[in-house]
Amino acid sequence: MPDAPLPDSLPKPLKVVLASSGGADSLGALVWLHNQYQQGVIDEITVVSIDHQIHPDSAEWSARACQQASFFSIESHCIKIDVPTRGIHGQHSLESRARWARYEALRSWLYRRYQPEDEPVLVTAHHLEDQVETFLLAALRGSGAAGLSAMPALTRFGAGWHWRPFLQMPRDDLRQFAASLPLIPVDDPSNQDLSYDRNYLRAEILPRIQSRWPQALVSLGEAARQSGDDLALLESLAAIDGNLESLERLPLSQLLALAPSRQANVLRTWIKRHGALMPPKARLIEFLRQLKTAEPDQHPELAWGDWLISRYRDELWWRIPPDLQAPEALPWTDKTHSIEYSPGKNIHLVRTQITDPLAIGERWLDRDWLIRTRRPKDRIQPQGSAHSRSLKNWFQENACPPWVRSSIPVVEIEHRLACLVGWAVDRHFCPEPGEASWRIERTN
Fold it and tell me: Which SMART domains does this one have (predicted)?
């Protein structure tokens, strides 16, 4: 059985979750992964199938994907989801809305199933033709390196990774892995609908390209890989040019000191780290022009899709859509697992040093915690402060924009504000000398 390369950066032990549709590609991926498991390369395999509930037979297709896993005695799970009926995060077509909902469901499932230190690896069965189609569709949209790099082989995903082992493998080779098995793959009739751009490209365009240039798939796949290398260089340059450690804010003076092309590169890299779609090029350039010419009391904004970047004082701030704010209150009982306090947004505990200004003493871990939004009478007394103060005053002193304040998760312990996640810890809950320390971290 041919091997697909295993990236050196994959965690050990290697815990793999295959996102399976039950189709021929997913079945081939399942067989290959099982072979790797038998060889000791993979330590654990689980199959998860998402039922989008779009087609009348979707539940049967997910069940078949789980049956395929059972054939190899592999644990499996079927998850029903509701695809948004309107566009969300710039995803407007049914295909893109279903893809967004699928990955959100997988991300949430991984957070519930695994500890952050497990670093689970989500595997999808994308192959060479998928990669080439994505590359060509991006080229037709006039995309730059970010679009032309198509799908990366390995990227961070939630608390773990997303691995596409088969991007350099032709579809027929992937499907051949399962050709001799008595298993019937799912045949989704929507794959024949030429009203979808990808299907049209696959059925009408790629065969003609290959008939003229037999090596076209390999060459176009290599072009996508090279674009990925170019993108990595651009992102490395952005990390040098701009302080990108914070997802919430970006220093403005450092950005405006750069040449326009490098300004745009920093912003695009920052936007990508949020998992957002790229804004139109003309709108991005106009925003940068406004930043350069705006008076101190002016606050230019870049708005596109469901995203918004605003200037506040000498920083750019990433705005959280109002419908993705945290719920009013949510108990956090089991601190050994992360908790989803808002769609796609989780918090979890990590060990830290006693000197960490955001450290909480271990003595508080067995108490009842409540994750909530701020309330009018909330007060906090940070470490080194002689008196408590209202959150309103504290936010003003720490240059926190008004729109950010309502999105910061508050941890309440024993009816007292203990922590503004990512911002401050009340001194009452700080570690005592020699006590083990924990930090609450957010993950998008």
Answer: TilS_C (SM00977)
